Structure formats: C-alpha cells, structure tokens
Amino acid sequence: MKIGVLALQGAFAEHIAVLKRLNVDVVPVRLPHQLEELDGLIIPGGESTTITKLMVNYNLAHKISELAKKNFPIFGTCAGMIVIASGVANGKIEPIGAMAIKVKRNAFGRQVDSFETELAIPALGKKPFVGVFIRAPLIESVGKEVKVLAKLPDGTIVAARQDKLLVCAFHPELTDDLRFHQYFLDIISGKR
Question: What are the CA-CA distances from residue 184 to residues 47, 95, 121, 163, 190 (Å)?
C-alpha cells in the first residue's frame, strides 16, 4: 500500500512518521504527478488558508478534487478537514467540496485554547481515543451520506466518514495511538 501525505505546510512529517510505524510506503506530495499510483492521501492539519492557496498554486486542488469524485480515499485532519469540506462557515477558504460537511474554522478559539480530551469512537473500539485539538474546526452540519464517528460531550461533531473520505477535527498524528490511521488503511483495503 502506498499513501501520499500532502506536504505543502502543516503536520505532514508527523503523519509520515505514523505511517512508517504502520509499515506503509509513504510519499510526500508536493506536485500533481506525485498523486499517481497512490492508494490514498492524507491532508494534514496546518493553516487552512495557506494549504488551500498552495494547492491552487501547485495545481493540486483540481487534481485532488477529481480524485475525490472518483471515490479515492482521502483522510483530512484539522485543516485537512476544512480543505475536504463542501462549505466553510467562516473565512475566505475555497474547499475542494469533496465531502458533504459544513465546517467552522477555529471553532474552539485561539492557540491558547487548545486542549486534549478522551473521545468515544466506536469504529476504533471500546478504548477512548485522545483527541488533540489545536485551533481546531468543528463540523456544523453533515449530509445524509455522512456517518458521524465522534462527538464531544456537548454534541459537537469532530469526526466523520463519507464512503472513502475520512475527517477529524483533531490531530491523531500527535498521539502514540495508531488506531485512526489504521482505520483509514482499513477503509482503503476494504476491511471497513
């Protein structure tokens, strides 16, 4: 299995390290030709405005959007979730519109308002998953084809799946828990 990690800005090195721990062939993606022959793509957290502008500048936005329309597996974390969304409630972001979710950027406040919390994610098993929220977005609404995977205790949606698209508002790559990445690999292989 060969997974690409969009390596324009943000936490791409951390995702690459997790995938290597899972013994997966990893390709840092910076140019359109690097998307060829991949089995899946991770769009990491970072600064969503910067990532979307760089995707356009490097001719990646249209190519990734086209792949998503063909049911290509994409996993977006934090800013990556914003990039994949069909709509953004605040900010001047042009998401690729791949997933039927509307998101709100920086929903929990500034950097100093970052937090960690245990999340119940039944798709990952009974053990709670620690969500690391750093200037995190949230999912305001989902389309009927979207399955909600995790919510905060107040009902705020923080992880979802639509066929082979997977998103979360937090940073699973900043924990030692490999289950969320393994879940994405299982989606790709057809186990989930």
Answer: 22, 21, 14, 11, 10
Of the candidate CATH numbers 3.40.50.880, 3.30.1490.20, 3.30.460.10, 3.30.40.230, the domain formed by 2-189 belongs to: 3.40.50.880
Q: Which helix (H) or strand (E) holds 52?
A: helix 48-57
pLDDT digits (tens, 9 = 90+) for 45-99: 999 989 999 999 999 999 999 999 899 999 999 999 999 999 898 777 888 889 9
Q: Which residues are catalytic?
A: 78, 171, 173
pTM, whole model, 2 decimals? 0.95
